[in-house]
Amino acid sequence: MSIKQDKYYKELIDLQDVNGVESQIKSLLDIQIESVSDLEKWLEDEKSLMNKIAEAMTGHQVDFYRNTEDEDIKATYLHDQQVIQPLLMKYEAKLNEKCCESPYFNQLDEERYGLMRRVRGSKVKLFREENIPLMVKEQELNTKYSEIMGGLTVEWDGEEKPFPFIQSQLDHLDRAVREKAYYAMGSAFSHIKADMDAIMDELVQLRHQIALNAGFDNYRDYMFVVKNREYTVQDCYDFHENVEKHIIPAWNRLAEVFKSKLGVDTYRPWDNTAKLMKKPPYTEVSALMDGVSDMLGKTDPYFAERFDYMRENGLLDLGDRKGKSPGGFCTSLPVSGDTFVFANFSPSFFSLIALIHEMGHAVNGYLELAEHGPIEDYQHRMEVAELYSHGMELLLLDKLDRFYPDEEDFKSAQREELRRAFTMLFGPLSGDLFQHWMYTNPNHTAKERDEKFFEISKRYGLNPVDTTGLEEQIGMSWAGTLHYFQVPFYNIEYSISMLGALQLLENYRSNPELAVESFKKGAGADYNQSIAAIYEETGVSFDFSESAVKRMGDFLESVIKEIN
């Protein structure tokens, strides 16, 4: 049969032909490996096949996120998740076994293959056949979550509006509108709360069983091995404490600035949003893209060249519409050699920053591709990837006047980006602490989960906020964070990388050209290195000790004082 050629991704393998896919994978298992060079050739053949499968599956996933209501698209996506994904899990274990058991495995060059050897070795140790159906069920629950959130609408002034539109109203100048939007979001969550609780309850139990099957006491400890983390559980707990001690005081100081600018007596959750600019930064997506291209170009011509290329080649889908999945992400297309940015944006400051963030990922992807070819799964560590997305945001901090030419608006925008830097430090970190609690207490109730989420939120992001009477609404708001459902324990990486990105900003303020060159050098670095080595190439330190966190807390205080 002829395989569909799509504008933004290639289907070089027919995933509907399950027997054909299985046959190609099985053929890898039949290859005789009789030397180190044979093993290296086998690894290349494996990568080529897996890239074809990955690109097709990625394209189908993006198609589904772009239109969750199209039954054909949904069926294709579900086929991938329910049929192809289990097949890959089954054969991934066999392929890992073949590779790791080869007598030539430990003779592979350490510099090039050391990380791969460690990751594959962990996977061999972790694999359990009985976990495959549990992981398939996990994907089904995540699809259900996407469908519920993608279809979530709110009545607003007599009209049915998509949920991202209501979120954008939290930036409104009128405090009454912000308050109305806040309560409308809470009302929307209350309608889906029972479904969210049921999904999360089942996910926690599924994941706990997966961990038990693999020989772990809990899912948290299992995930640390899955992610091959280059730091410990205790390091995370220390980081939680260091941020509470040294970053939250600076955050409270910024909150006082916001409170003063707003002229309010009490600082409520709907005041703790990006609302001091007089209007959204754009009205049409085309204007957003024009402005971001300019900002990228003023930072480095290569950044703008990549953005314009993506825009011209259908690799950006940014607007909001009903039936589109929430959130935003950048994903790689390893065969095409491209990246795709998906987002569900309504005009808001957040949307502007989120696009810049995803372009950090995209530039990282293109530089890696140019230097080393497509990033392989085992190389893709979020502590590294998020350094360049957060870093891009902060490199463009001094160019927000492209959207906010008025001096006071410009300062407000910079303060809002500082707010985001803070929230990316303590928000994911508090989310990480929440997940540590959830998965080391797998028999918790929905009520206990809400109470714990509120308690942790109050220690961090809501520390300076008056939450009186809103405990229940805040407690259930975890349901709006897709990471807890779809990418568990993908949280602390944001905070670690934001600490690195703040160092990048510190460097940029001293020497812009050198900081940008270091950014590009690190973004195209050999991903087989340790995280610390890649950070070093970027001109920053992979360090979240108390002294490092305190230094960044002091730096943030100085920037707040300067902008104020």
Automatic annotation (TrEMBL):
Q: Which Pfam families match?
A: Peptidase_M3
NCBIfam families found in the cross-reference section: M3_not_pepF
Lineage of the organism: Bacteria, Bacillati, Bacillota, Bacilli, Bacillales
Question: Which cofactors is this protein said to need?
Answer: Zn(2+)
- Top-rank taxon of the source lineage equals Bacteria
Instruction: List, alphabetically, the SUPFAM superfamilies matched.
Output: Metalloproteases ('zincins'), catalytic domain
Asked whether the keyword Disulfide bond is assigned, the reply is no
Q: Which family does it belong to?
A: Belongs to the peptidase M3 family.
Q: What is this protein called?
A: M3 family oligoendopeptidase
